Amino acid sequence: MDTSNKFISINLGRQVIAVARTADLVLMMLDATKKDVHRHLLEKELESVGIRLNKNKPNIYFKIKKGGGLSFNSTCPLTKIDEKLVQMILHEYKIFNAEVLFREDCTADELIDVICANRVYLPCLYVYNKIDQISIEEVDRIARQPNSVVVR
User: Fold this and answer.
1) How far is it, in rounded angstroms, from Cα 132 to Cα 58?
2) Helix axes 83-92, 108-116, angle to 10 degrees
3) Which superkingdom, per the lineage (predicted)?
4) How far apart are CA 112 and CA 89, in angstroms?
5) pLDDT digits over 76-90, tens only?
6) DSSP E strands: which ranges in the chain?
7) Following DSSP, what letter does each residue of 13-35 receive, concatenated?
8) Alpha carbon distance 122, 20 (integer Å)
9) Residue 109 CB: number of other CB atoms within 10 A?
10) Nearest-CA neighbor of 128 among 103, 144, 148?
11) What single DSSP character describes residue 106?
12) Rg for the chain (alpha carbons), in Å?
């Protein structure tokens, strides 16, 4: 029986998520023999509950106003989003009066993170164990990944 399929169906409990949201660092212990399958599944699950690992908070100023419509500006060229898309996203959230200032080239998803204001940006250290069961080349590949450490 393939145990990796069992892992996919495991959802992190609410208590674990609540603790992770208040932590200063996420330490993710991973099995080196499982490739990056578990890492990607855990990252995806944390992303779905608003925890952004090893990412910076988008540099977007956003303030809801009582009137005056949408005030849209940017201090840099925007290649991933434009004023029309910003307006469409804000309308989806029933926001018709706001100030939006992009200080970096951000995506629509990053704008949504700012609008929702309930996302948490945390550093994560990936620690891989069981390295004695994989090749030295694989250990080297894992060790060179950003924010990763291998232990025996």
Assistant:
1) 39
2) 40
3) Eukaryota
4) 8
5) 999 999 999 999 999
6) 26-31, 51-53, 60-64, 70-74, 98-102, 120-122, 124-129, 148-150
7) PHHHHHHHHH-S-EEEEEEGGGT
8) 9
9) 12
10) 148
11) -
12) 20
The two tokens of residue 108 are: 């629509």
Chain segment 11-43, per-residue pLDDT in tens = 557 777 878 888 999 999 999 999 888 999 999
CB of 128 within 8 A of CB of 30? Answer: yes
**pLDDT digits over 45-65, tens only?**
899 889 999 999 999 999 999
Q: What is the pTM of this model?
A: 0.78
Q: Are 107 and 78 in contact (CB under 8 A)?
A: no
What values do phi and psi take at 27, rounded to 5? -110, 110
- Pairing of the two strands 120-122 and 124-129: unpaired
First-to-last CA distance in the chain?
26
